[in-house]
Structure prediction request, 235 residues.
Amino acid sequence: MSKKSARDTEVDKIIIDLKKCAVPGAREGMARFGIKAEHALGVSIPNLRKMAKSIGKNHALALRLWKTKTHEARILSSMIDEPEQVSEKQMESWVKDFDSWDLCDQCCGNLFDKTVFAHSKAIEWSERKEEFVKRAGFALMAWIAFHDKRAEDKDFVRFFPAIKRGSVDARNFVKKAVNWSLRQIGKRNLNLNKKAIKLAKEIKSMDSKAARWIASDALRELEGEALQQRLRRSK
Prediction:
């Protein structure tokens, strides 16, 4: 068996395994939640994580799986890829393929936020016009705030102008990601909480229905007693 055909067989076997894990009717459910199901099989995220753990990290295999265009294979790609092997070119290629919020968020949270390009791409993509590319920018900000324990407060303050600019975008998948990034940054510590609340109040005063929703929703959590108590305890 040639090396090329062996690689093809490996990808084919994974696709077969994915199909075995597919839940009947799941594709219809995905569509109801705004997930594009054209190339989906209907495999749950827990099952994808089990498969990823079994496969192990493999950059070359991740690239081949992505090329299948199968929805779950692409999410699996983000789980097994190696952040240190990911190039800026790869990130730009993959982000253009995003066609649903779950693929966008999984890719950003499983892989992209752990690359050396994460902070710069967060700002760069937040300025793009394409809906899911723009969402990816704000999803990255949220995931960095959640995952990157070494990042400093100033790193997140740099995201604030982009969040404020993005808050007037009324597209559902964008405004929800803007809101998510603002809330996640504001949950990181007391200092960022105060700064995020201040930013949210500035956004709330803007002449934009989307901005007012983003800010009002964020303020409910950021000013909430449960979060305030947690942040004071962890100070």
Summary: The CA atoms of residues 75 and 114 lie 16 Å apart. Residues 1-81 form one domain.
